């Protein structure tokens, strides 16, 4: 049953979610997440409601890291040029994006200072000082800081920005390669738990050689899907090996008194995790928030008008409910403002409040109140006793989370298009017929174009070797997300028939 107030059209003035780009920029200010009118390109201002949501999301991440042996630290924003430039491959990847501080007051600085684009070169010189013996290892630290990147492409709030305001970066150092490899798996598990708590679906892939983090041996990434079928990278994990340790001379003495380089990993998540919650769950009426990260979990709306003779009775019952929910540690708001009920529904639906409780004069007589769940806009009655309401609120919030997660994963899986079976058969028939030609033939281009067309619907999963993956990227502008991190099926490349792993390809943000 759908709430009659909400049946039919989208919220007034909000573009439909199908027009994702417009919907996204509109919802950010309508729901009071961020204000983009600050006079610097590619940065934005967090508003109180958005900031609360961001804090709730990051407190999940912090607790997952704290509970798995990580310690929070805070390193300076400024990195001397001399340190930033030390690791050749690393700086090649970042040089074009660095903001520089070159003056202090009236004086030119002797050593220009970079605003951190990421903190390897800030943290690793200190690890050189901190690590002496195997007893100092492992080190697992993280910080949540702002980082700056001179983004030259079209910027988009929380997704592609010049100031990433909440970059959670973890850095670890280990005595052995096996320990560092194990940490990569631990990090993947932590991130899975994090995105599960947000009910955000993902795939985990190992990025191709050409798309690794600058200076890393391996990069593993999480991607989710936006409603328009484009993917968004939401987390990365890097195996650094001893590459940075050699550059920054980070060594330790092992049990036998030998000096060795540490083995390192690093992994990060930015406020794209907030963008993912907004984009994955939102609908034509506004935000839809998983209860755990909703700044307001329950809104109580009294259905009364100023001349109602039972107005005071209704308001006092609503206050009792509010106090009882508050005592039960549920984030609750009683909206007793002068606006009409319809305007209140609109406002709180826009902000994604998971559950609305309506109480009117008739409800006092029947001893019931009305619950409306935001994710499906369904209505049902609950006995109007504080005990029953509190119990039912808890139950309902838990159910909302489960249903949101299941719905999000179902939509996600529906947008993964597996071509592994059908094109493998087609291409092996073709390659038998055209064995003579070794170059990329016209029919190979057809296969690549076909895959390019399929990508309009989401992520394409296909057997393809890295070389043909690169050709696909060049021909269609698609991104090669990579091979699945868990388990590797083997097959024949749909283009050149060489044995290879499955590849995920998509259009990306
Ligand atoms: Zn191939």
Structural notes for this entry:
Helix 9 (311-327) crosses helix 12 (386-414). It is built from 15 helices and 24 strands. It has helices at residues 20-30, 48-66, 81-84, 88-94, 120-130, 177-197, 243-248, 272-281, 311-327, 341-350, 361-366, 386-414, 420-433, 442-454, 466-476; strands at 34-35, 45-46, 71-72, 78-80, 100-104, 107-115, 139-148, 163-174, 203-206, 218-225, 231-241, 251-253, 259-261, 263-269, 298-302, 332-334, 355-359, 368-373, 378-383, 416-418, 459-463, 479-484, 490-492, 499-506. Helix 9 links the parallel strand 15 and strand 16. Residues 1-8 and 422-439 have low confidence and may be disordered. The protein binds zinc ion. Zinc ion is lined by residues 464-465, 467-468, 493, 495-496, 498.
In short, what is this structure?
The strands form 5 sheets. Strands 3, 7, 8, 9, 10, 11, 14, 20, 21, 22, 23 and 24 form a 12-stranded mixed sheet that branches. Strands 16-15-17-18-19 form a 5-stranded mixed sheet, with helices on both faces.
How does the SSE layout of this entry go?
Elements: H1 20-30, E1 34-35, E2 45-46, H2 48-66, E3 71-72, E4 78-80, H3 81-84, H4 88-94, E5 100-104, E6 107-115, H5 120-130, E7 139-148, E8 163-174, H6 177-197, E9 203-206, E10 218-225, E11 231-241, H7 243-248, E12 251-253, E13 259-261, E14 263-269, H8 272-281, E15 298-302, H9 311-327, E16 332-334, H10 341-350, E17 355-359, H11 361-366, E18 368-373, E19 378-383, H12 386-414, E20 416-418, H13 420-433, H14 442-454, E21 459-463, H15 466-476, E22 479-484, E23 490-492, E24 499-506
Parallel strand pairs: 3-7, 15-16, 15-17, 20-21
Antiparallel strand pairs: 1-2, 4-6, 5-6, 7-8, 8-14, 9-10, 9-22, 10-11, 11-14, 12-13, 17-18, 18-19, 21-24, 22-24, 23-24
């Amino acid at each position: 049953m759908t709430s009659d107030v909400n049946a039919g059209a989208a919220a007034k003035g909000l573009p439909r979610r199908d027009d994702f780009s417009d919907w996204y920029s509109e919802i950010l200010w309508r729901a009071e997440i961020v204000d983009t009118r600050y006079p610097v390109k590619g940065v934005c201002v967090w508003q109180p409601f958005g900031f609360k949501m961001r804090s709730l999301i990051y407190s999940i991440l912090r607790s997952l890291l704290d509970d798995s042996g990580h310690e929070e630290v805070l390193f300076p924003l400024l990195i001397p040029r001399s340190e930033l430039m030390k690791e050749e491959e690393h700086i090649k990847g970042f040089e074009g994006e660095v903001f520089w501080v070159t003056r202090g007051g009236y004086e030119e600085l002797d050593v220009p200072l970079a605003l951190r684009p990421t903190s390897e070169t800030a943290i690793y010189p200190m690890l050189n000082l901190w690590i002496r013996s195997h007893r100092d290892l492992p080190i697992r630290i993280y910080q949540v800081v702002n980082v700056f990147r001179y983004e030259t492409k079209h910027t988009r709030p929380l997704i592609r920005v010049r100031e990433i305001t909440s970059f959670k970066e973890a850095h670890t150092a280990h005595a052995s390669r096996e320990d560092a490899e194990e940490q990569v798996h631990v990090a993947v598990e932590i991130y899975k738990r994090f995105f599960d708590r947000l009910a955000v679906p993902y795939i985990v892939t190992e990025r191709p050689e050409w798309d690794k983090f600058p200076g890393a041996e391996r990069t593993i990434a999480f991607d989710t899907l936006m409603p328009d079928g484009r993917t968004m990278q939401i987390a990365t994990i890097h195996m650094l090996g001893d590459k940075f340790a050699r550059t920054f001379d980070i060594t330790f003495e092992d049990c036998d008194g030998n000096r060795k380089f540490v083995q390192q990993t690093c992994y990060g998540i930015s406020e794209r995790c907030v963008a993912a919650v907004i984009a994955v769950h939102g609908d034509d009426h506004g935000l839809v928030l998983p209860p755990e990260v909703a700044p307001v979990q329950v809104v109580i709306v009294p259905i009364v008008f100023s001349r109602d003779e039972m107005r005071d009775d209704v308001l006092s019952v609503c206050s009792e409910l509010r106090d009882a929910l508050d005592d039960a540690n549920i984030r609750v708001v009683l909206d007793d403002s002068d606006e009409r009920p319809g305007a209140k529904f609109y406002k709180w639906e826009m902000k994604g409040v998971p559950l609305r409780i309506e109480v009117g004069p008739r409800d006092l007589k029947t001893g019931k109140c009305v619950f409306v769940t935001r994710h499906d806009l369904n209505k049902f009655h609950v006995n109007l006793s504080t005990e029953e309401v509190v119990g039912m609120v808890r139950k309902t919030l838990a159910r909302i989370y489960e249903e949101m997660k299941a719905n999000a994963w179902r939509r996600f899986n529906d947008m993964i298009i597996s071509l592994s079976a059908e094109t493998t058969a087609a291409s092996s028939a073709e390659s038998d017929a055209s064995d003579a030609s070794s170059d990329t033939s016209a029919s190979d281009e057809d296969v690549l174009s076909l895959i390019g067309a399929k990508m309009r619907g989401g992520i394409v999963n296909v057997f393809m070797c890295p070389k043909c993956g690169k050709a696909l990227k060049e021909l269609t502008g698609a991104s090669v997300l990579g091979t699945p991190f868990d388990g590797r099926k083997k097959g024949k490349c749909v283009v050149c028939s060489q044995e290879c792993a499955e590849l995920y390809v998509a259009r990306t943000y």
